Amino acid sequence: MLGFMASFTDPQASLTEPLDLYLHGYISSRLMRLSGTSPSDEGEGLPLTIAATHLDGLVLALTPNHHSYNYRSAIIHGFATPVTDADEKIWAMEKITNNVVDDRWANTRIPPTKTEMTSTQIIKVRVVDASVKVRAGGPSDDRADMKNDELRANTWVGVVPTWVTFGAPVPSPDNKLSKVPAYLADFVKRENKVGEQNAREAITSSK
């Protein structure tokens, strides 16, 4: 599901400040329909738990029992309500679009049509609490295995860094532009570089 963290009332708020989670979906999907209900007595909205995980590497140890992953994960608990204010909804749709590819909103046919607006639902999750978990570094083997010279001489240990790689943009048969726009080419180049950098830095970080 597409989404982003931000504050409509304070767009300049940083990640260290209270933010809402905005999620995008089709108006008739189950989650979007349920967000209009409020099962709690206080009418706070639909209780939700959202989880996300990003994989940074495959950690290969001397024994299968110590194999692991380098990752970053987060779990958010909150209450979801539909976004009904037109300005906030357009703002959220623009943010979500640009969160997929930088500057994509301005390089498409906008604003959305009335049909597009009514068929798209944005829900805002007021975050109540959240937790994060990160695993970084290399393998962590038992002391006895580390003293086993024969085992170490025959077993490769280390980390296979993992990141999403964006390939060269492939034009649609209906595309009329002669070359890939700079904003898109720059996005692909930058994201590939950042993805690799983060995965490799996770190997040398503390566990």
TrEMBL record:
Family matches, as SUPFAM superfamilies: FMN-binding split barrel (SSF50475)
In terms of domain of life, where is this protein from? Eukaryota
Q: Where are the transmembrane segments?
A: none
Matching InterPro entries, A to Z? Answer: Pyridox_Oxase-rel (IPR024747), Split_barrel_FMN-bd (IPR012349)
A Pfam family this protein belongs to? Pyridox_ox_2
**What is this protein called in UniProt?**
Flavin-nucleotide-binding protein
Source species:
Hyaloscypha variabilis (strain UAMH 11265 / GT02V1 / F) (Meliniomyces variabilis)
Q: Organism classification, top ranks?
A: Eukaryota, Fungi, Dikarya, Ascomycota, Pezizomycotina
